[in-house]
């Protein structure tokens, strides 16, 4: 997905001062006081998006020249600059223009480039949170509502929902990715399916996504993007069983492990240990996903040292949040 932002600068070659009516430039002015005089403006753009800086010139002639520089390096010599900021950071973009009379102007922009981060915040996401968590008690993700439960981010187009692997009769118990805001640190008493949407601690973001049992997420429309990172956390239910045991054993000894595997549609995989040799992840952890490259979809599976004929014994729940996506 590309979004084009036209920054309509009005540059008067006769050393005048002109204001702009473009909503994108609310509060910005261009002051021309002398040859190559500059004023500093603050702009915020998004990583991976193409931005078009298109000045409207008055007093230009056929010999007018333009030079765009980014931190001192020339990046364009046309009247219109099309540029994609590939990495987040702080930059300075400078435009200088000179006409045949050697009248020159310049303007510097301090540009902050931010990554796209899907944090599941806002009214759209909050409306997707069930009123209650337990199996066969939560609204939205069990019963008839489960047949139509799904979500899609309007910016990244990342989407998820319930797998409906058995036809949808059992809702979230069949697997899926749902939105939650439940936090419960009582792993001693609340490590059960009655608290399946809880995480043991907050991470500064109110809402997050909870995954169960072989679910997946993908970008709509066949799009592929680089997922740079996301925050991962075991749920209260899973953490309680990893530490204290339940249907599965406590994973507190040498040789014990529980591994979460992310599989991309391009065939690449990423393994994240939730437990290994007695070391158990108890809260949120940021994971680098850049090794997977550009992906259209990610599926989630778990494997561990304590298994039955039906697979790993520990409840296959985890949460993720703050998905950093590099747009293009």
How do the helices and strands line up, and which of them pair or pack?
Elements: E1 5-7, E2 10-12, E3 18-19, E4 29-30, E5 40-46, E6 50-53, E7 56-58, E8 65-70, E9 73-76, E10 81-84, E11 89-98, E12 104-114, E13 116-118, H1 123-126, E14 150-152, E15 158-161, E16 176-180, E17 182-183, E18 198-199, E19 208-212, E20 216-219, E21 225-234, H2 236-244, E22 257-264, E23 269-276, E24 279-280, E25 285-288, E26 294-295, E27 297-304, E28 307-308, E29 311-312, E30 317-326
Parallel strand pairs: 1-6, 2-7, 5-12, 17-18
Antiparallel strand pairs: 3-4, 6-10, 8-9, 8-11, 11-12, 13-30, 14-15, 15-20, 16-19, 19-30, 20-27, 21-25, 21-26, 21-30, 22-23, 22-27, 23-24, 28-29
Q: Would you mind describing this structure in some detail?
A:
The protein is mostly beta strands and 328 residues long. It has 2 domains: 110 residues, Immunoglobulin-like; 210 residues, Protein of unknown function DUF4465 (Jelly Rolls), CATH 2.60.120. The protein has 2 helices and 30 strands. Strand 23 and strand 24 form a beta hairpin. The longest helix is centred in the C-terminal third of the chain and has 9 residues. The protein is elongated and about 85 Å long. 33% of the residues are buried.
């Amino acid at each position: 997905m590309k979004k084009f932002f036209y920054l309509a600068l009005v540059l008067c070659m006769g050393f005048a001062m002109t204001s702009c009516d473009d909503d994108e430039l609310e509060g910005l002015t261009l002051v021309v006081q002398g040859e190559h005089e500059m004023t500093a403006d603050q702009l915020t753009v998004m990583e991976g998006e193409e931005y078009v800086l298109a000045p409207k010139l008055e007093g230009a002639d056929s010999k007018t020249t333009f030079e765009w520089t980014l931190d001192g390096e020339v990046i364009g010599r046309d009247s219109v600059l099309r540029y994609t900021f590939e990495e987040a950071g702080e930059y300075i973009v400078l435009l200088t223009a000179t006409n045949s009379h050697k009248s020159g102007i310049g303007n510097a922009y301090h540009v902050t480039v931010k990554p796209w981060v899907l944090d599941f915040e806002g009214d759209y996401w909050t409306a997707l949170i069930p009123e209650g968590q337990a199996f066969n008690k939560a609204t939205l993700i069990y019963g008839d509502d489960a047949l139509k439960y799904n979500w899609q981010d309007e910016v990244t187009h990342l989407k998820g929902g319930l797998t409906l692997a058995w036809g949808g009769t059992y809702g979230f118990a069949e697997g899926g990715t749902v939105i939650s805001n439940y936090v419960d640190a009582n792993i001693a008493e609340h490590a059960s399916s009655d608290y399946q949407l809880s995480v043991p601690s907050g991470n500064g973001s109110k809402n997050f996504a909870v995954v169960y049992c072989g679910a997946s997420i993908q970008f709509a429309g066949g799009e592929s993007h680089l997922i740079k990172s996301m925050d991962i956390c075991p749920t209260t239910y899973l953490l309680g069983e990893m530490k204290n045991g339940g249907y599965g054993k406590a994973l507190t000894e040498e040789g014990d492990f529980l591994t979460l595997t992310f599989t991309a549609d391009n065939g690449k995989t990423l393994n994240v240990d939730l437990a290994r040799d007695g070391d158990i992840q108890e809260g949120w952890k940021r994971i680098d996903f850049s090794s997977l490259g550009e992906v259209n979809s990610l599926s989630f599976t778990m494997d561990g040292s304590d298994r039955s004929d039906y697979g790993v014994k520990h409840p296959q729940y985890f949460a993720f949040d703050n998905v950093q996506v590099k747009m293009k």
